[in-house]
Design a protein that fits this description.
two-stranded antiparallel sheet, single chain, alpha+beta, 7 strands, 2 domains, three-stranded antiparallel β-sheet, extended
Length: 212
């Protein structure tokens, strides 16, 4: 019996050591040595304080800031732990709405979002960018399209007293090109753009802009 079990036990211990210890430590070490910022979550710091991540969006309600796309993530309801409630950009509960294109809840939410977006940004009858009223599959998308950012310039310019030309330059500076030149679409990192706004005017100190 021992002769039969011994090879199996040795293989279990060997593979446990290789896949459970050696491989994870090797991958972690290489990641920390080659691209430590990405390995640690692509965190954004200002004045030594972490204000967010390049990979996770945040909610910005003030008209002084560019606003990201909607988020459908949920979290525990403070009033009842057995229930969940909307918690936009909840990093521990990445999810989309899972609503189909014919779902009334989705149609109603998008229609309401279009009306709110046009009212807030003075878009009138102009076509509203899709990413302004629809959630991403993860619910954590930190980017918006350049078209979405352009449509918000008039509102932010009025709230901050900045020229449209200067805001367009800040948007251009925060715009990321297609990955490798051909993957995906150009995109604007909302947190980076809003931090640049505060640096431009010396308003809120960097590190305190998050979740306005």
């Amino acid at each position: 019996m021992l002769k039969i079990l011994r090879p199996a036990l040795v293989m279990i211990l060997l593979m446990t050591g290789l896949t459970g210890l050696v491989y994870p430590f090797a991958v972690t070490g290489i990641a920390q040595a080659v691209f430590p910022a990405k390995a640690n979550g692509s965190l954004i710091q200002r004045n030594g304080q972490i204000v967010g991540s390049e990979l996770i969006g945040q909610s910005f309600a003030s008209p002084r800031y560019f606003q990201g796309r909607p988020s459908a993530t949920l979290g525990p309801d403070p009033a009842d732990a057995a229930k969940t409630t909307a918690q936009p950009y909840n990093g521990v509960n990445s999810m989309g709405s899972n609503a189909g294109p014919t779902a009334k809840t989705l149609i109603d939410r998008v229609q309401a979002g279009v009306a709110d977006y046009r009212q807030a940004n003075g878009a009138g009858g102009r076509i509203v960018p899709g990413d302004a009223v629809t959630t991403s599959a993860s619910g954590l998308d930190p980017h918006i399209s350049p078209e979405n950012a352009e449509a918000q310039i008039a509102r932010v310019a009025m709230a901050r007293g900045l020229s449209h030309e200067r805001l367009r330059q800040l948007v251009a500076d925060a715009t990321e090109d297609r990955t490798l030149g051909f993957l995906g679409e150009p995109r604007v990192n909302v947190l980076e753009l809003n931090l640049a706004l505060d640096r431009e005017q010396g308003g809120l100190q960097p590190g305190t802009v998050a979740r306005q």
